[in-house]
């Protein structure tokens, strides 16, 4: 049996064991990365550990640390109260406020994880306070970030448009942007209706007069200033959101040592272990060549239309466990050979690939989904993880064929 097949079977075994025995999936993934990487793939320790997602680790630790301080000193309560005032007491409006804010942040140039890291802690804090379905709030934040993610001045948009130009393909930045915007908006509407949005609309009157006045004090003002600095440095200067968040949290902790002591214990270490373990194993899959192996099999498919669908599926499945940015750079070049034949319209195909690779980022193993999970209430975290995983699976299964039918099939010549 080849190393590629062994590594894929081991991934399936990780999910089964974690589900049956309730063992942290990250621990299993680290062990599998060592065993499969060493004995099946012949990788060195350095090659195995090269897949450790240091950037995601820092983002998860930094963001949860900073917002643990914000929760401890009452800043998130103040922000939730401000959101209620903005919505004029209409609880059902809040999920859409989060969607729009996330979309605007990515549309003007924020990387998607940075936008989610800024909005998700506030949104999940609101959900916990008013007993709103955390899955609904998390979905609205992530799909909002992806809705604006392909604007011509965004990171995703720049990557896709650059690859299109580099490979000499006809492109349409506006078409890709609108495809992502419409797809994520439709998903958000469906999620809102299915996950209790109408119930929120009927129960908004409970907010009238429910807000206790929350006043600003020194710690809350400093924390709000820190959040403004976080937004400014990540958006205007493209600095790493995790490192910036940790730095701000350290400054706030030095100014209020008693808050720091309680906040440091609220970093969501089980979630960090889970995400980092799984992504380390995905790195082993890539090193062994499992992803290339699957992609190669797709390229050998004779029918361009079927190959287009399979590429969309590869983009969705792999992106649910890995970097969407990196995957965009890999899947679009794979499509170049049959796009050059002119059988399938390049604009529709590129849009379908781009959206398939990013619409699944609500998975708890993606950076965005992990941030949502890490900022949920502790008592909800395990249940939310399973619901995010199930929801992500639904999106992985349903989104590629729907995008293929609407964006690729009509362009068949």
Question: How do you describe this structure in short?
Answer:
Helix content is about 75%, strand content about 0%.
Describe this structure in words.
Helix content is 75%, strand content 0%. It is mostly helical. Helix 4 packs antiparallel against helix 15. The model has no long low-confidence stretch (mean pLDDT 83).
Set out the fold topology.
Blueprint: H1 3-21, H2 25-40, H3 45-49, H4 54-72, H5 75-86, H6 93-107, H7 112-130, H8 134-147, H9 155-166, H10 173-194, H11 197-202, H12 218-236, H13 241-255, H14 257-264, H15 269-288, H16 290-299, H17 304-319, H18 324-340, H19 346-356, H20 367-374, H21 381-408
List keywords for this structure.
single chain; 413 residues; mainly alpha
Number of helices: 21
Computed over alpha carbons, the radius of gyration is: 22 Å
Largest sheet: none
Helix share bin: over 70%
Q: Count the strands?
A: 0
Q: What proportion strand?
A: under 5%
| Derived structural class | mainly alpha
Structural shape: globular
Mean pLDDT: 83
Instruction: Give the ordered list of helices and strands.
Output: HHHHHHHHHHHHHHHHHHHHH
């Amino acid at each position: 049996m080849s190393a590629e097949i062994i590594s894929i079977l081991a991934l399936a075994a990780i999910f089964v064991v974690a589900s049956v025995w309730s063992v942290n999936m990250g621990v299993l993934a680290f062990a599998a990365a060592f065993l499969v990487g060493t004995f099946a793939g012949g990788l060195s320790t350095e090659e195995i550990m090269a897949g450790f997602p240091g950037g995601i680790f820092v983002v998860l630790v930094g963001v949860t640390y900073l917002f643990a301080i914000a929760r401890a000193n009452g800043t998130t309560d103040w922000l939730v109260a401000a959101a209620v005032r903005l919505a004029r007491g209409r609880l059902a409006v809040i999920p859409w406020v989060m969607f729009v804010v996330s979309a605007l942040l990515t549309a003007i140039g924020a990387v998607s994880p940075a936008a989610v890291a800024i909005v998700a802690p506030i949104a999940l804090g609101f959900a916990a306070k008013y007993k709103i379905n955390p899955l609904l709030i998390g979905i609205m934040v992530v799909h909002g970030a992806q809705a604006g993610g392909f604007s011509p001045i965004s990171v995703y948009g720049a990557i896709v448009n650059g690859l299109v130009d580099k490979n000499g393909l006809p492109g349409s930045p506006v078409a890709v942007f609108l495809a992502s915007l419409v797809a994520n908006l439709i998903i958000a509407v469906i999620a809102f209706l299915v996950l209790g949005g109408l119930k929120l609309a009927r129960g908004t009157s409970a907010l009238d007069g429910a807000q206790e006045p929350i006043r600003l004090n020194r710690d809350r003002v400093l924390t709000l200033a820190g959040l403004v600095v976080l937004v400014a440095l990540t958006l205007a200067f493209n600095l790493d959101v995790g490192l910036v968040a940790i730095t701000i949290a350290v400054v706030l902790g030095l100014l209020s040592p008693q808050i720091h002591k309680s906040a440091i214990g609220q970093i969501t270490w089980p979630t960090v272990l889970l995400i980092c373990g799984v992504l380390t194993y995905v790195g082993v899959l890539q090193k062994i060549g499992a992803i290339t192996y699957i992609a190669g099999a797709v390229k050998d498919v004779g029918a361009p239309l079927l190959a287009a669908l399979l590429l969309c599926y590869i983009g969705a499945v792999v992106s649910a466990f890995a970097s969407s940015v990196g995957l965009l750079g890999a899947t679009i070049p794979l499509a170049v050979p049959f796009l050059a034949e002119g059988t399938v319209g390049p604009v529709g195909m590129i849009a379908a690939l781009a959206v398939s690779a990013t619409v699944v980022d609500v998975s708890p193993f993606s950076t965005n989904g992990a941030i949502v999970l890490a900022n949920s209430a502790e008592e909800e975290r395990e249940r939310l993880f399973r619901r995010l995983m199930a929801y992500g699976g639904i999106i992985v299964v349903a989104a590629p064929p729907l995008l293929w039918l609407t964006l690729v099939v009509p362009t068949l010549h």
